[in-house]
Design goal:
Length: 177
């Protein structure tokens, strides 16, 4: 009996540990807009399509405050760990001409040192046309066919997860749906 209980606890903690390492879905609001962390790793274009299908868009970050909010949201969704996530910035139409998928004007940029570098993969030439955030909130242009989670932004507030309402305290993250 004891063995069975111990085994049960071992399975439970193993599953929970696996969970904690990944981003979970998390909804929150900032200055009248809704934000949804989507923990499914997909390509940049799939992320864009999924966001638009829900009448939102891949997040546009237009101020340092919004960047901080987004990074904190990702941390909350990963038990404080952080993760690389797609944001809506791209230069796929014209190299070096950055645009938000939402069409918003660029009013803020937060590139990591040495980025954007349009890094050439195995001599294939520049092929980094989509942007993600690193865990520290800095941005990197990246190959859009890499699969990582993403954030949807809405032009309206959404129902927030109650745990994400408190700022400054690392909340216990729970699964949505
Ligand atoms: Ca590029
Ligand atoms: Ca890069």
């Amino acid at each position: 009996m004891k063995t069975i209980i111990c085994f049960g606890i071992w399975i439970l903690t193993s599953v929970m540990a696996g969970f904690a390492a990944k981003p979970v879905s998390l909804n929150s609001n900032f200055r009248g807009h809704g934000y949804e962390v989507v923990p499914i790793p997909v390509t940049w274009h799939t992320a864009k399509k999924m966001a638009e299908k829900k009448d939102g868009y891949l997040v546009s970050i237009t101020s340092p405050e919004e960047n901080e909010f987004v990074i904190q949201l990702i941390k909350n969704a990963t038990n404080g760990e952080g993760a690389d996530v797609w944001i809506g910035l791209t230069d796929e139409k014209l190299e070096g001409d950055w645009e938000w998928a939402s069409g918003e004007k660029i009013t803020f940029q937060n590139w990591a040192q040495g980025e954007p570098n349009n890094f050439a993969y195995a001599g294939l030439g520049g092929s980094e046309n989509c942007v993600h955030t690193w865990k520290d909130g800095k941005w990197n242009d990246y190959a859009g066919d890499v699969r990582i989670p993403f954030i949807i932004e809405y032009d309206h507030e959404i129902e927030p997860d109650s745990d994400s309402k408190s700022s400054g305290v690392k909340p216990g993250v729970r699964l949505k749906k």
